[in-house]
Amino acid sequence: MADGAGEGEAAAATGRRFTRRLLLIGGAQAAGFGVIVGRLYQLQVMEEGRYAPLADDNRIAIQGLAAERGRILDRFGEVLAANGNGFRATLVPGRIAGRGDELRRTLLLFARIVPTTAAEQERIVERARRSSRHAPLVIASDLSFEQVAELGLLAPRLAGIGTERTFERRYRHGAALGHVVGHVGAVERLALDDEVHMRLAGTRVGKTGIELGLEDELRGVPGTRRLEVDARGAIVRVLGEVPPRKGRDVVLTIDQRLQAQVVERLGKVRRGAVVAMDAASGEVLAMASAPGFDPGGTTGAGTAAAESWQRQLADPDKPMLDRAAGGLYPPGSTFKMVTALAALEAGIVTPRQRFQCDGGFDLAGQHFRCWSRGGHGGVDLGRALKVSCDVYFYELASRLGIGALSRMARQLGLGEVYDCGLPQQKAGVVPDPDWKRGEVGRGWLGGDTVLAGIGQGFVTATPLQLAVMTARIATGRRIVPTVVLHEPGARPSTDADDFQPLDVAPQWLEAVRHGMAAAVNDDGGTGGNAALGSVAAGVTMAGKTGTAQVSRASGERPQAELPWELRDHALFVGFAPAAAPKFVVSAVVEHGGGGGTVAAPLAREVMELLLEADPMARPAVKAGAGAGGYAGGDAG
């Protein structure tokens, strides 16, 4: 009996211990479950506002939708750049069983329809390997309708490859307006803050010209598409869409027909540039650079476009360079008006004061020759401009000093980049002691000032700047050029009074204009070849020739005996009518020889075109309205 009682007590004690353990374990489980429930309540109820958007971010993907680019029109509505419908082929790597051998077999079949080299196929395989499985890759552009149809027929055998419609930038007038309009190309670098649509396959952005300068306006407002995706990134359904808004049409000040005629005239030279402006408003009516380039040949994504691009870059004549806005040249004798105005304003000379020219000028042991070895005799301001006497302007510059000379040059628009929609302008050089010390590492010399006085030495300018300089002299106002009519249909005022007056006395400006008129129209003037013909009967042009030395050899041997690349640059600037300036022209011919023999006749032809067409007499088109065409010494 005792043994039985002992066994009962032991069993009871064991039961009590088990019960306690069970309670402890159960309590721990209940506490743990309570913690979990509490945490879930906290996450799902109390902090719903914080975590619900994060969950949506994992479930919802935002796809950017690129906007159609706005068109570029000339001042009368002729379409210069627009969008055409095109087709391209895309590849979604995740829809192919493997990214290696299976993808290669698919691309071999694709190459039967769209010619693709083995090297291009390997590049596609490598891109697919490094890309998201569900992000489409563009593998071919500029597909024909026949190719799209064939790809559609073989779709079951071309897993992952599809076609889609796209906008392709098309340029109607090719090389005639390539530099002004510019071109588009692929996005080369991406920043963290770039808009979503910039990351879309095949996105094109402006690279040069107006396409780049007005990229924000032309691009439009991108749209978005909200997609529900699964855990692997595959699209489940479309949740909503905000459509993109097309970019704004841009109307240029350029007259396309006039531009074509100017390009035809300029085509007679190997390299050069011409700028034609309205003198009062600053509207650029034609701006041509030779040689030109056709932007339509560089905008595609295929092999042909890449080869065309490489040919352009390798061409020694640099057709991609816009010489009108980005070509830098010594202005030569066209700078002499700057020197004259600075000297007149400083009071160191009067229009009738004479200096003796015996063919040279001596300063600090240096001899500076005049282009006329025999000299010009006694010359005043008017005759100095007429015959382009170097010695007269050497004398003015040495008395004036570089400070006053540089200040006048800047007041006349040199050394400046204009806010006019052209992004690839060069500022040129208006030198002074600080500039030379920083760029050359040496102090300023008196000889530097003397050379600057005739537009040589360190002075450089673009043809656009020379046109602006001439417009400011012609009107006495701080004319600023414009290439874009920012108010469509409402042409900017053609009243020069809208611009601030120059800080130069009117009588000094008139004296310089008189000398420019004599240079073109009086016997013995260096610009006689710019005198207007019967097309502009009764109208006279005022102007100034310029011949900028490229090498010392040009001062020792006739131009015809020199290699082309060692010949002087030829320049001319002018305005007409001389009595009431309406149009301005600047012309530069690289290695053309003499300004009076090469650039002056070119400028005359352009001025005659301007006077005959008179683009300012017709109102500009309204954007969005029905547009036409396609939906040493200086020879002076």
| Biggest beta-sheet profile | 5 strands, mixed
Based on helices, strands and strand pairing, what is the structural class? alpha+beta
CATH superfamily of the largest domain: DD-peptidase/beta-lactamase superfamily
Q: Separation of termini?
A: 142 Å
- Average pLDDT over all residues: 84
Number of extended strands: 19
CATH topology of the largest domain: Beta-lactamase
Helical stretch tally: 20
Number of domains: 3
Query: What is the CATH architecture assignment of the largest domain?
Result: 3-Layer(aba) Sandwich
Rg to the nearest angstrom?
A: 36 Å
Shape: elongated
Q: Percent range for helical residues?
A: 25-40%
Quickly name the level 1 CATH class of the largest domain.
Alpha Beta
Beta-strand proportion: 15-25%
Which spans of ≥5 residues are poorly predicted at pLDDT below 50? 488-492, 625-633
Which helices and strands occur, and which strands form pairs?
Elements: H1 2-46, H2 48-59, E1 60-65, E2 72-73, E3 79-91, H3 101-111, H4 118-130, E4 137-140, H5 145-153, E5 161-171, H6 178-181, E6 184-186, E7 204-206, H7 209-213, H8 215-219, E8 223-229, E9 235-242, E10 250-251, H9 256-266, E11 272-278, E12 284-290, H10 303-314, H11 323-326, H12 336-346, E13 355-357, E14 360-363, E15 366-369, E16 377-379, H13 381-387, H14 390-400, H15 402-411, H16 433-439, H17 446-452, H18 463-475, H19 506-521, E17 542-548, E18 569-576, E19 583-589, H20 595-613
Parallel strand pairs: 2-10
Antiparallel strand pairs: 1-8, 2-3, 3-4, 3-5, 6-7, 8-9, 11-12, 11-19, 13-16, 14-15, 17-18, 18-19
Helix pairs in contact: 1-2, 9-20, 12-14, 12-15, 13-19, 14-17
